[in-house]
Amino acid sequence: MKIEQIYTGCLAHAAYYIENNGVAAVFDPLREVQPYLDRAKKDNAKIKYVFETHFHADFVSGHLDLRKKAGSQIVFGPGAKPAYEAITAEDGQLFEVGDYKVKVIHTPGHTMESTTYLLIDENGKEHGIITGDTLFIGDVGRPDLAQHVVSELTEEKLAGHLYDSLRNKIMPLSDDLIVYPNHGAGSACGKMMSKETTDTLGNQKKVNYALRADMTKEEFIKELLTGLTTPPGYFPQNVLMNIKGYESLDKIMDRATTAFSPEAFEAAANETGALVLDTRDAQDFAKGFIPNSINIGLEGSFAQWVGEMIPDVKHEILLVTYPGKEEEAITRLSRVGYDNTLGFLKGGFDSWKKAGRGYENADRITVKEFEKAMSDEKPLIIDVRKKSEFDSEHVVGAINVPLNQINQNLAQFPKDRPFILHCAGGYRSMIAASILKQRGWNDFVDVIGGFDEIAKTDIPKSEYICPTTLL
Question: What pTM, to 2 d.p., does this model score?
Answer without folding.
Answer: 0.91
